[in-house]
């Protein structure tokens, strides 16, 4: 089995619609794909309606968290999307995205960048607007060469010149809420230092003690030494280890199935979940 447990659609900051994403996943030879848009489950219905035969969908989300000034992302799988407390927190995060993005556009204008809110809104479309959409606007304007180049201290990185904070969950609260909704939690790209500051390994140990299920090890932002280090840490803490593409369509260079999760780990994730269950495709509508 080929299993990719971290992807994004136009419901957040990907460029494929949910329907296009599941068909692309099938075409890439995947057996299982998780849709984990940022702080939203709005893409699930479209993905399920289009789910092709032979592909199983794992519903999920990537929750925005912050601890001691450091941003981190918590992948949540197979939770009850209607559970009120977790739904309320996701809506708080999502509702803060527009004023935050507008404030970042304002900061960029103060820095002499001729970006306009209308441009960012056009790029975001119906998705939950975020920094990748602003980064793409900077690419369109020729300010940077790639979306990744915008995530530096000069521009949009945490603490950067155009950075603005948003409402984010405490990761310990995120774990508690996801657990209460019957879901499973995996710390996404925990040592992706190229993205900015990361939490120390002692924090990962604290998260594990509070119920964290796993850490994402095989990811494009982890080199081989980092992956080995994380596997050793996971072994010490009794954490599951996952691998995934963090696919965003054409917005990033990663490919669907570039990194995958071991079937036994996937099986354990599904065994632990009680809020929702993987959905096998039966030949849904084409996008």
Model description:
With 287 residues, the protein is of the alpha/beta class. The chain contains 10 helices and 8 strands. It has helices at residues 18-27, 44-50, 84-95, 97-110, 117-124, 131-140, 171-180, 201-209, 224-237, 263-272; strands at residues 3-7, 32-35, 56-67, 70-77, 184-187, 214-218, 240-243, 279-280. Strands 1, 2, 3, 4, 5, 6, 7 and 8 form an 8-stranded mixed sheet that branches. The chain starts with a strand and ends in a 7-residue tail after the last strand.
What is the chains' assembly state?
single chain
Average residue-wise pLDDT: 95
Pairing-aware structural class of the strands and helices?
A: alpha/beta
Please give the alpha-carbon distance between the first and last residues. 25 Å
Rg measurement, Å: 18 Å
Low-confidence stretches: none
Count of DSSP strands: 8
How many strands, which pairing sense, and closed or not: the largest β-sheet? 8 strands, mixed
- How many separate helices? 10
Q: Beta-strand percentage?
A: 15-25%
Shape descriptor reads globular
Which sequence of SSEs, written as H and E, runs from N to C? EHEHEEHHHHHEHEHEHE
Descriptive labels:
287 residues
Brief overview, please?
By secondary structure, the protein is an alpha/beta fold. It is 36% helix and 15% strand.
Topology:
Layout: E1 3-7, H1 18-27, E2 32-35, H2 44-50, E3 56-67, E4 70-77, H3 84-95, H4 97-110, H5 117-124, H6 131-140, H7 171-180, E5 184-187, H8 201-209, E6 214-218, H9 224-237, E7 240-243, H10 263-272, E8 279-280
Parallel strand pairs: 1-2, 2-3, 5-6, 6-7
Antiparallel strand pairs: 3-4, 3-8, 4-5
Helix pairs in contact: 1-2, 5-6
């Amino acid at each position: 089995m080929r299993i990719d447990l971290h992807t994004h659609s136009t419901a957040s900051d990907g460029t494929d619609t949910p329907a296009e994403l599941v068909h692309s996943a099938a075409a890439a030879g995947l057996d299982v794909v998780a849709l984990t848009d940022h702080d939203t489950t709005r893409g699930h219905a479209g993905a399920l309606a289009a789910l092709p035969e032979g592909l199983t969908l794992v519903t999920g989300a990537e929750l925005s968290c912050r601890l001691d000034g450091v941003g981190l992302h918590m992948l949540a799988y197979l939770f009850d999307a209607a559970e009120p407390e977790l739904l309320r927190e996701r809506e708080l995060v999502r509702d803060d995205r527009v004023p935050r993005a507008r404030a970042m556009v304002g900061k960029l204008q103060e820095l002499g960048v001729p970006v306009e809110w209308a441009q960012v809104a056009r790029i975001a479309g119906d998705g939950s607007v975020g920094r990748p959409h602003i980064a793409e606007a900077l690419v369109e304007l020729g300010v940077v060469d790639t979306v990744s180049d915008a995530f530096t201290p000069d521009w949009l990185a945490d603490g950067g010149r155009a950075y603005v904070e948003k409402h984010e969950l405490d990761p310990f609260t995120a774990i508690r809420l996801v657990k209460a909704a019957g879901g499973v939690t995996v710390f996404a790209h925990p040592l992706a230092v190229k993205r900015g500051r990361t939490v120390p390994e002692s924090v990962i140990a604290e998260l594990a003690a509070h119920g964290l299920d796993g850490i994402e090890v095989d990811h494009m932002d982890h080199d081989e030494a980092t992956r080995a280090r994380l596997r050793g840490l996971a072994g010490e803490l009794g954490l599951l280890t996952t691998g995934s593409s963090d696919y965003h369509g054409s917005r990033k260079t990663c490919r669907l199935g570039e990194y995958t999760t071991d079937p036994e780990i996937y099986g354990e994730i599904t065994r632990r979940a009680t809020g929702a269950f993987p959905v096998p495709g039966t030949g849904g509508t084409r996008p």
